[in-house]
Amino acid sequence: MEDACARAGIACAEDLRALGTDGAYAKLLNSGHKPHFIAYYVLEMALQGRPWNDCRGEEKARLRARFDTLKAAHTPKSNVMDAFLDEMGVIPANREAHSL
C-alpha cells in the first residue's frame, strides 16, 4: 500500500490524513490502483485509529456506498460495450461492486 500511495503522489501519513479516505482513495484509483473494497475500508479504519475489522453493519454499508461512488467516478469502463450499456442504463450501477 505504501508503494501504491507513492505512485499516487501521497508521500507521507500527513498527506494521507489531509486527503481523508475518499480523497486518498480517489488518487489511488486515478493512478491505476485496482479498486478493492477491503482496502478502502481498512484505510478508513486506520485513519480513525480503529482495527481494520471493526467495520460492521450499517457503517460498513455506508462505506460500501461511498466506495461504489468513488469506483464509478475514478475507474474507466472495462470495455466499450460496458461503457455503452452503462450509458444506456442497462448495467446496474452496483454490478461491478458485486464482483469484488
Total domain count: 1
Class from secondary-structure proportions: mainly alpha
What is the fold-level CATH name, i.e. the topology? Answer: DNA polymerase, domain 1
Helix content: 55-70%
String of helices and strands: HHHHH
Strand fraction equals under 5%
CATH class: Mainly Alpha
Report the average pLDDT across residues. Answer: 87
- Largest beta-sheet details: none
Helical segment count: 5
Low-confidence stretches: 96-100
| Alpha carbon gap, first and last residue | 18 Å
CATH superfamily: 5' to 3' exonuclease, C-terminal subdomain
- At CATH's second level, what is the architecture? Orthogonal Bundle
Radius of gyration: 14 Å
The total strand number stands at 0
Describe the global form.
flat
Detailed description of the structure:
The longest helix is centred in the first third of the chain and has 18 residues. It contains five helices and no strands. The chain starts with a helix and ends in a 12-residue tail after the last helix. The chain has a single domain, classed as DNA polymerase, domain 1, CATH 1.10.150.20. It is 62% helix and 0% strand. It is mostly helical.
